[in-house]
Amino acid sequence: MRLFLLTALTMVAFAANSVLNRLALASGEIEAGTFGTVRLIAGAVTLGALCLLRDGRLRLGGPGRAVAVAALVVYIYGFSAAYRALDAGLGALILFGTVQVTMFAGALRGGERPPAQKWIGAAVAAAGLVWLLWPGEGPQTSTLHGLAMVAAGAGWGVYSLVGRGAPDPLMGSAANFVLATPIGLAIGLVLEGGVGAISAFGLVLAVLSGAVTSGLGYALWYTVLPRLQASTAAVAQLSVPAIAIAGGWLVLGEALTAESALAALIVLGGVALAVLAPRRP
């Protein structure tokens, strides 16, 4: 029961990132780029502090670090840019579907030969994403902002592939956030000429997203992940878009149309097919 509750809490934290980001931008409390930069800084401080408390030091090097940092930056700023227009749940759905398709492509590139069920699942999920993003058809979605979330999902997928099998995921994540922060500050200077318009409430939301639902959320995930079967962990993540949709409805008053619900079922159904496929011996 304790493991279940910790896993559920982690999934709620991941979904809360979408709700917090959308809440901050929809109410005009903060600019998208500034939200991403504050989130990066808060995450770096939290993860770095956890590593210092645990080990007394912070290691910034490691294989694949440059790729991981670049992928993290793409994820953070694509995520924030997308929530200028996307609903919280819809954004989480596009993000999650893209992450899974990206990781499937990465597995192929790495020489894996997945069974037919994984191919079918990935194709179904990709078709659902195309329907969501296709201009003038299907659910009404801003194609530009949807593509920003696709970029974020691809970034997070690459980030996950690079970090898969890392000997110390917490230390690696702390290093990635710390090294990405100066890049984020530079992006803020270019995009917004410095720190954009921000209120106290917007600052609190961005810090919560970086320190709590990102930093502490990732730390908790790395604690429970070794105790979960791979298939269980993958299925657990299917709940994130559903939680984000519920959070958007409860906190932001977002509506869910029948077409959006159908698209969500197609994407999540395809992902479920892929992650539940048996491994080849």
UniProtKB/TrEMBL annotation:
Residues annotated as transmembrane: 36-53, 65-83, 89-107, 119-136, 142-162, 174-191, 197-221, 233-252, 258-277
Domain named EamA: residues: 5-133, 147-275
SUPFAM superfamilies linked: Multidrug resistance efflux transporter EmrE
Location of the protein in the cell: Membrane
InterPro entries: AA-Vitamin_Transporters, EamA_dom, EmrE-like
Pfam families recorded: EamA
Annotated membrane topology: Multi-pass membrane protein
Entry's Gene Ontology cellular component terms: membrane
Keywords, alphabetical: Membrane, Transmembrane, Transmembrane helix
PANTHER family, sorted: AMINO-ACID METABOLITE EFFLUX PUMP-RELATED, INNER MEMBRANE TRANSPORTER
Protein name: EamA domain-containing protein
